[in-house]
Amino acid sequence: MSQQTRMRDLRELQAALRTASDIAFDQEPPAGEQADVLVDALRRALTAAQSLGDGPGETGCREHPRGAVDPLYGDKDDPLPAGWGRCLLCNDRRRRATRASRRG
C-alpha cells in the first residue's frame, strides 16, 4: 500500500471519527436521521481503520476490500438476493436503497 493511500485512509478515518464524535457527544441522544448518520460514520471509520492494516481483504469488494463480511452471506435460511456479494457495506447500501424505493 502506498504512503499516499495510507494517508488518504488515515484522513478518512479521522473525518469519520470526528463526525461520529460530534453526534455521539451532542447534548441530545441521536435519533432518526442523526442515528443513521452516526452508524454510517462509524462504518466509514471501521473501513478506513481496517484498510490501514496489511493483508488481503475478505469481502472481494473493490470499494471496501477490508470492509465487514455480511453475516447473511451464505446463510441458507435467510439468503441474500441474487447478485449481492460478501461486502456488508455495499449490501447495507442496497438494503437502504430497496427500503427507500418501497417508501417512495
Instruction: Flag low-confidence runs.
Output: none
Distance between the termini: 42 Å
Beta content comes to under 5%
The biggest beta sheet, please?
A: none
Task: Describe this protein's structure.
This protein has 104 residues and is mostly helical. The protein has 3 helices and no strands. α1 runs antiparallel to α2. The chain is flat and about 40 Å long.
Features of this protein?
104 residues
Quick recap:
With 104 residues, this protein is mostly helical. The chain has helices at 3-24, 33-51, 88-103.
Reconstruct the topology from this structure.
Layout: H1 3-24, H2 33-51, H3 88-103
Helix pairs in contact: 1-2
